[in-house]
Amino acid sequence: MRHLLSPLDFKVEELDELLNLASDIEKNPEKYKHACDGKKLATLFYEPSTRTRLSFESAMLSLGGNVLGFASADSSSASKGESVSDTIRIISCYADICAMRHPKEGAPTVAAEKSSIPVINAGDGGHQHPTQTLTDLMTIRSLKGHLDNLTIGLCGDLKFGRTVHSLINALVRYDNISFVLISPKELQLPDYIRQDVLEANNIPYKEVEQLETSMPELDILYMTRVQRERFFNEDDYVRLKDRYVLTKEKMQYANENMLILHPLPRVNEISVEVDDDPRAVYFKQVQYGVYVRMALILTLLNIKV
To answer: Choosing from 129, 225, 243, 262, which is the catalytic residue?
Structure first.
């Protein structure tokens, strides 16, 4: 039995196989519509979510399976004090596979230790978000044709952004990758990612505060929102939330083949006028997320089609 708690749980070769499967699902959806007949996915979301939770549900339903679960801690026995360990033991009696989002870092790992079904980390605090990373990788590979030889700009909340942390961990395993880290000093990438991931793997990177001056060199611009829920101080959030706003005017600095990704939800960090730019692929990214989660469910349940 396997779990997905971090992007590093899959070797590069296994990631490629997973993305190949997701691409086949995209091209041949009818082939997979009964692959999970009789199987059940439990979605245990202790934090609010629209895209990730519904994407998992859509993925399982598209495979012919069923879904059960809860959408907030308040509607679960966690509100009565039940531990994650006990919850997963109970859920293991009801479902064949589980997707968990939790505000505490490491909670899905604790669940996996006690679970008798595969556990998928659907986001744990400011730590990791591996299925968003799989979605990002599929988006880049599908639209660029490769995952190597890329310069990636990561913009916004790099301190608390779990999608950023997961994506860096995954991409450093490919050849000729470099990063431009665009953020205010208060939201810079944590030292443990900078030192233990980038520097330890000799990955070229630079830290800057200006977005426009960095755009000409980027193959990918990965925008993120400043996350109100991660701040302890409302004044700091208000001061930083509008630091980076991508507009139609700023897009003139980008090369014609640069792709704009965003894990969503967006607040105002990408102007709606940018949505019509062919380089804006964040809504395509959402659709790729369904295919890649379908592929992940099949892989963890060891279902061959």
So the answer is: 129
Three-state secondary-structure class, residue 294: helix
Q: Which residues, in sequence order, are bridge partners of residue 152?
A: 179, 220
- Annotation marks residue 11 as catalytic: no
A 10 A CB-CB count for 9 gives 13
Tell me what pLDDT residue 231 has: 47
pLDDT for res 230: 47
- Which pLDDT score, from 0 to 100, does residue 78 have? 66
Burial (0-12, 13-18, 19+ Cβ within 10 Å), 207: middle
Who's near 277: CB < 8 A, 6+ residues apart? 248, 251, 260
In this prediction, the residues of the chain whose per-residue pLDDT falls under 70 are 73-80, 126, 227-242
The alpha carbon torsion through 4, 223, 70, 95 (nearest 10 deg) reads -20
The pLDDT of residue 225: 79
- The span from the CA of 210 to the CA of 153, in Å, is 11
Q: Which of 2, 51, 144, 284 is catalytic?
A: 51
Are 249 and 211 a contacting pair, CB within 8 Å? no
pTM beyond 0.85, yes or no: yes
d(CA 254, CA 10): 33
pLDDT of residue 47: 86
Is residue 80 part of the annotated active site? The answer reads: yes
Per-residue b/e over 45-78, b at no fewer than 16 CB within 10 Å? Answer: bbbebebbbbbbbbbbbbbebebebbbebeebeb
Give yes or no: 101 in active site: yes
Among residues 52, 87, 131, 151, the one annotated as catalytic is 52
Q: Is residue 129 among the annotated active site residues?
A: yes
